[in-house]
Amino acid sequence: MLSNIAEMELENAALLRVLAHRLAQWDLLDPSIRLFEAVLKLRGEEPQSYRDLALVLARRAEAHGLEKQKSPSVAADFTRAIELLYHVVLNRWDRFEEIELTALLELNRIIPLAKQAGVTGIPVDERLIQRLDLDIRIVMTWDADLTDLDLWVTEPSGEKAMYNHPLTTIGGKVSRDFTQGYGPEEYLLRRAMPGPYKIETNFFGSSAQALIGAVTLQVDVFTHYGRPNEERQSVTLRLKDSKETISVAEIRFLPEKAKKTWK
Q: The whole model's pTM is what?
């Protein structure tokens, strides 16, 4: 059914992006990649189009790599993912300054996996390659242009990381506030304090909402990001009313594992 909807709205990049994210969330990576390829053709001026496609290609490569290590298809997916993210890193994006930092973090996660899959001659400046692993990484994206959503994370101490308080006492950091659409906004923490982390979003407002209806929000929560024991879970929500604050999820981080409780 989703494929039929996509075929009816082939020029609607916003809808294609929503469907592609939903398919990826269900681990239907092949059709998700096809839709993200279409979005890239329609919205090549937006860095999110490159990043979205790169991340799903990398997920497919990882999934297939468990069965077909060093296969040409796995290597091809990793190679393209690296090229797409590196394109984001190297270019300037006027409305989305600092998205290149997010892409660089993701690029450094993928490069070691690509090397394990037999990829050689990786076209990335060696000065930009460094292991960047984290206890907690929370990434929030949304489908609407000209829309401002804010990521809030309340740490076990009660301190809240947000756009006007981006660096916390324990080292939690919230990325740049994207006020004109899409995200990503992320929360990063290298060494986590044990306890609960409450994730919220504030729908600040949208001048595009009248055109597309409700805004679709996706939050990806990683624990032990960039490590062999990395775990990932995603949640998708539909937001209708600006100025509302929504509780997205809560994770309880323990020294050796993180328990996730989704609301």
A: 0.88
Distance, in Å, from the CA atom of 173 to the CA atom of 167, rounded to the nearest integer, reads 5
Give the type of residue at 174.
Answer: V
Contacts of 45 (CB under 8 A, 6+ apart): none
User: What value does the mean pLDDT take over residues 64-84?
Assistant: 85
Are 172 and 153 within 8 A, CB to CB?
A: yes
Which amino acid, 37? E
Q: Indicate whether 231 belongs to any domain.
A: yes
Q: Is residue 248 part of a domain?
A: yes
* H helix or E strand, kind and range, residue 258: strand 258-262
Half-sphere exposure of 70 (CA within 13 A, CB side): 3
> Among 239, 156, 150, 158, which residue's Cα sits nearest to residue 186?
150
What is the count of structural domains for the chain? 1
pLDDT, position 204: 77
Cβ neighbours around 62 below 10 Å, total: 17
CA 219-129-123 angle, 5° bins: 100
CATH code, domain carrying 209:
2.60.60.30
Q: Is residue 78 part of a domain?
A: no
Q: Which of 80, 24, 20 is nearest to 50 (CA)?
A: 80
Query: Is there a domain that residue 210 lies in?
Result: yes
Contacts of 192 (CB under 8 A, 6+ apart): 135, 136, 170, 253
Task: Report DSSP letters for 103-162, one per residue.
Answer: HHHHHHHHHHHHHHTT--S--S-GGG-----EEEEEEEEES-BTEEEEEEEE-TTS-EEB
| Comparison of pLDDT for 67 and 216, the residue scoring more | 216
DSSP code for 207 = S
pLDDT band for position 237 (cuts 50, 70, 90):
confident
The residue segments making up the domain with residue 142 are 133-263
